Amino acid sequence: MTIEVPGRIDTKGQIIKLLDASLLRERLRSLIKYKPDAITISLINSFADPAHEIEAMEVAKEIFPAGRLLIVSNLIDIYLTIEPGEVPISISSEVCS
């Protein structure tokens, strides 16, 4: 399941549009009924500046205080390929909770 919220950081790390934290809270609350085991936060251009991912993680902690949260900007840059031609697997360096 994926939710989207307005907010944008460009490839140089400049904030183009602020993250809409109140809309994020509303959309995260709509997920409570699904009882997710974990939430991954993956935002465009987080490699340039993870500020929006970090802000989104803080909001997610409010809604799911005991949940397992991962922000993509915390992933190690290592990929393992199981077989040639298959999709690589990302190895996480940190699960934030």
Can you walk me through this structure?
With 97 residues, this protein is α+β, with helices and mostly antiparallel strands. 23% of the residues lie in helices and 24% in strands. It has two helices and six strands; from the N terminus they run ββαβαβββ. A two-stranded antiparallel ribbon has the order 1-2. The chain has a two-stranded parallel sheet with strand order 3-4. The chain has a two-stranded antiparallel ribbon with strand order 5-6. It is globular.
State the total count of DSSP E strands: 6
Overall shape: it is globular
- What is the helix fraction of residues, given as a range? 10-25%
Biggest sheet strand order reads 1-2
Mean pLDDT: 80
Distance between the termini: 20 Å
**Residue ranges: pLDDT <50 for 5 or more in a row?**
76-82, 87-97
Distinct helical segment count: 2
Structural class: alpha+beta
- The proportion of residues in beta strands is 15-25%
Keywords:
single chain; alpha+beta; two-stranded parallel sheet; 23% helix; globular
How does the SSE layout of this entry go?
Blueprint: E1 8-9, E2 15-17, H1 21-29, E3 38-41, H2 51-63, E4 68-71, E5 75-80, E6 89-92
Parallel strand pairs: 3-4
Antiparallel strand pairs: 1-2, 5-6
